[in-house]
Amino acid sequence: MDRSLIIKTYTQKNDFYKKVAEKVLSGKGLEAEEALRLYQEGDLYFLGELANAVKERLHQKRYYYTINRHINYTNICAIGCKFCGYHKKPGEKDGYTYTIEEIIETLKSTPGLKEVHIVGGLNPELPYEYYVDLIRKVRQNFPSLRIRAFTCVEIDWLTKISKKSVAEVLTELKQVGLNSLPGGGAEVFSERLHQELYPRKIGYQRWLEIAKTAHRLGIPTNATLLFGHLETEEEIIRHLFTLREVQQETKGFYCFIPLAFIPKGNELSYLTGPSALKVLKTIAISRIILDNFPHIKAYWVFLGVKLAQVSLLWGADHFHGTVIEEKISQSMKKDTVVQLSKEEIERLIKEIGGNPVEV
Ligand code: V47
Ligand code: SF4
Prior knowledge:
Helix content: 40-55%
CATH class of the largest domain: Alpha Beta
Largest sheet: 3 strands, parallel
Shape: globular
Order of helices and strands: HHHHEEHEHEHHHHEHEHEHHEHHE
Number of domains: 2
CATH superfamily of the largest domain: Aldolase class I
Bound molecules: ligand V47, iron/sulfur cluster
Number of strands: 9
Distance between the termini: 31 Å
CATH architecture of the largest domain: Alpha-Beta Barrel
Strand content: 5-15%
CATH topology of the largest domain: TIM Barrel
């Protein structure tokens, strides 16, 4: 079926669908109440077609991926979020920290790398110099590698251990070679959930303040949403509209990554995690609301390869990358694939009618 006919069929029988389709297709933003109703009541296919229309307006049939590798430099974390199965408390068995030399050796053993994604826990034993030296040495050894490192949560931690300001820390990291920040640690922009699930981590006001400072200094950042646990639909929509407003102001966000909660190995393991339907609707509503974000990422490591592939038809345009060794999900899903080849990613994209673009 011609996909534009799907929208036509829906809008003919429903005034609400007609109104939102007109707004979304003409590039006018939805009101928060309209977006919430669309997310709550909108049919899965209708949401998918609208999101795909936004995606095609921005990228046509192009779908992006990169040859990348994750380095989770330490799993020791003083914070302990309830949803995290990755961290170990300081002093606990099975805690690890990589030396900078080990990290350089690991990167040398991965040919063809375009990007490295470096994140870790908040380890009280690591001095500020470790972080700066890590970026400096990675840059010295790999002059053209894109270094995406340290979430806003880690940047806040660095300000505390160095007694420097956010701008000072970011400027120093940029000077030694940092290119951008990953989007982790945003969780859900809700004070209720902050208190309930991660009270020792920075709240969303601080997370946004750090992201805005990075943008002002010419450092692009990503943004995430952790969904499928105890959040409400209203909280998801508020999170998305908050990001949309900040992006209007700074234009510094590059990619939005809706992270599907994995209910394993953590204090919320009694939950089921989001259904495939919830995942697709969340990716679609993200693409519709965040039409000022360049990219929506299908993070296959958390979604699973099959659902990530389908989500490329529901508004996502970025398949993240080849990944290799991602310990956050490995700690929760022991059987997860943590590496895809360039050829596999290209095949998955071509199978849904897309043109793969390596970035
Ligand atoms: O901030 C923790 C989340 C994030 C769980 O910027 C969990 O390109 C699901 O942010 N189930 C880290 N999620 C990962 C992250 C990320 C991943 C890929 C790409 C990018 C990017 C960023 O993982 C944490 C937290 O929100 N997380 N525990 C869990 N049980
Ligand atoms: Fe620590 Fe990050 Fe895990 Fe929270 S999500 S416990 S901050 S490693």
